[in-house]
Amino acid sequence: MKWMIFVFLFLFAGCFNPDDPAVSNAKNIQLQFMKQAGIDVASASCRVSAEDMDTLTADLTVSSTMISGQVPDVPYGDNRLFEIHCYNSDGVLNYYGSTIANINRSAPVINITLYPQEQYADVTIIGNFSTGEGTEEKIVSPADYSGTHNIYIMDTDGTNIRRLTDSDYDDRRPQLSPDRTKVTFYRNTHPDHIAYILDLETRELELLPLTEYTPSCISWHPDGNSLVFHSAYYGYCDVFNYDLQTHTVTTLIRNDTTIWVPVYSPDGNFLLYYTKVNNEFRAYIANADGTDPQLLNPGDTRTNVFPVCLRRYEPGALLGKVLQ
Amino acid sequence: MIQFGLYITDRSTGEVREVVANSWINESFPSWSPDGNTIIYERWDGDSYGIYTVKPDGSENKLLLDSGANECHPHWR
B44 touching A, CB under 8 A? Predict the structure, then answer.
């Protein structure tokens, strides 16, 4: 045990590198301005819709840093999700986004602000603009605005919500890759679980050959080269690693207990998860290959689940959920 | 309803410290912000899921997103 304490003290004091390398993927996008009264402006059009309203159109103002505008006379409603589609002049869809707005008597408009991502409408934007993916922190989350849980991405203040998936099935447990350019998640098609990686730049979905494992709660190794997930295929929930380069699956833990929600520590040296044995839930930390599992809170007999390891803040801290 | 709260374990001391634990509320699926200064989590109030953030010392526990669309499983990177 002294050795373990030393290892953890050492790791948290010096070996964890809390700073993920920022990946620059700023795009060079050209903007062709239209001259109006000596001022550089451009225009775009969009269509805004929600489930309980007719589609409305609006003109947007395009600047070198953002595209913005208002859609007036929208039916009232709280926390409604509006979908925004921008089209090229030839009718080709160029941007798809969404926003949540409260529409009431005092604010009967949708305020739209879009930040240049690729190309909008029939304009081409000049300048170095970040797509936001890969360079800035983001939050991903499933939500059922459309009746099933699809994956959404947003800024860290909960704004600029954009829909990433469109499925009649539930998409669950999204996890951003270490370089923030991809999202992995699983789709519950009842009874199968289908694992995907979504490329945030191209919006292309890569189907992972893991369906036979009924993969759940997939998360990334911090080097971005492999995934860890739990599987219910064998009746119990076992833990596997999937190598994204060799496309091989390695069993990490299989011991006839139910093991859930595995995640790697930020340095990749440890695996955290929780088990259910005799209806008792316990959180564990093990070596990354699944060996030498240790109870996370050996003196705590309460339910301990969902352990995740701190990146920074205070030495040695782990976060989890405990049944009161 | 089963009640869950968020706790931090200090591996160097074994101390388990409460971050947030409200009666009749489930706080779960925690995720650290990259700088370690904020925790984002899923909150179930018995009616719907929402996403909240809280500081590791339990302060500034506040709503981020709860539209009735059951936002859940947040991941911040």
Answer: no
